[in-house]
């Protein structure tokens, strides 16, 4: 059970190699709206056990890699559009690495993207995430909130999600509140201060090249 504070969320500032988290007031930066506005209405106790972990790879893989990422983070998009594809082919698909993806919410746009990605459950999550990252430069710069969420709807429809289901997902304030509390819980546990960040068999590591990831993974596999 996590206590969600209405006055504390995460801001974004560009730093070397990723995005950094800093505190700010959600009342100013995440205003209430018809889309998940209720998620920030008040302080509440939230049961985060209902949030599904999004995983790839063999459950009994000898190495576990957790990624913390934001859909609005360009460095995360670069990782997923480039390095991740190699990691998936060489380590995840071959049963060597269990991969866990956990969202970080810098802003409401990243939260809305997460609501779209999770809308059809685990089976479509990574495919939709791929579309979100590939199109990040378009949807994240579409204009204001209305334009951005319209672009995210387009991605959802492209993934085969019907309009009625899309709206139900975007309007689910309880789920949004739960996701934010879940993010806060995870970020506190692992000391997440920037994205993308990674937890490799329990140890936090930073974003790096595929060659460096490969060396670290190989060392874990040989150890």
From TrEMBL:
This is Thiol-disulfide oxidoreductase. PROSITE patterns: THIOREDOXIN_2. Belongs to the thioredoxin family. DsbA subfamily. It comes from the Bacteria. May be required for disulfide bond formation in some proteins. Residues 34-222 form the Thioredoxin domain. It holds the Pfam family Thioredoxin_4. InterPro entries: Thioredoxin-like_fold (IPR012336), Thioredoxin-like_sf (IPR036249), Thioredoxin_domain (IPR013766). It comes from Leisingera methylohalidivorans DSM 14336.
């Amino acid at each position: 059970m996590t206590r969600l504070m209405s006055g504390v969320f995460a801001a974004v500032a560009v730093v070397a190699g990723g995005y950094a988290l800093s505190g700010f007031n959600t009342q100013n930066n995440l205003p209430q709206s018809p889309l998940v506005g209720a998620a920030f209405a008040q302080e509440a106790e939230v049961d985060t056990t209902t949030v599904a972990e999004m995983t790839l790879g063999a459950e009994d893989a000898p190495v576990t890699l957790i990624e913390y990422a934001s859909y609005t983070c360009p460095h995360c998009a670069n990782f997923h559009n480039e390095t991740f594809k190699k990691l998936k082919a060489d380590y995840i698909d071959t049963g060597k690495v269990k991969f866990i993806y956990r969202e970080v919410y810098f802003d409401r746009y990243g939260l809305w993207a997460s609501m779209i990605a999770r809308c059809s459950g685990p089976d479509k999550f990574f495919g939709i995430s791929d579309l979100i990252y590939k199109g990040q430069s378009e949807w994240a710069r579409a204009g204001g909130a209305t334009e951005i969420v319209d672009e995210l709807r387009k991605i959802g429809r492209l993934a085969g999600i019907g309009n009625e289901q899309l709206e139900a997902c975007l309007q689910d304030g309880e789920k949004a509140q739960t996701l934010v509390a879940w993010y806060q819980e995870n970020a506190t546990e692992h000391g997440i201060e920037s994205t993308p960040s990674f937890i490799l068999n329990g140890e936090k590591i930073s974003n790096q090249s595929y060659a460096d990831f490969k060396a670290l993974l190989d060392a874990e596999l040989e150890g």
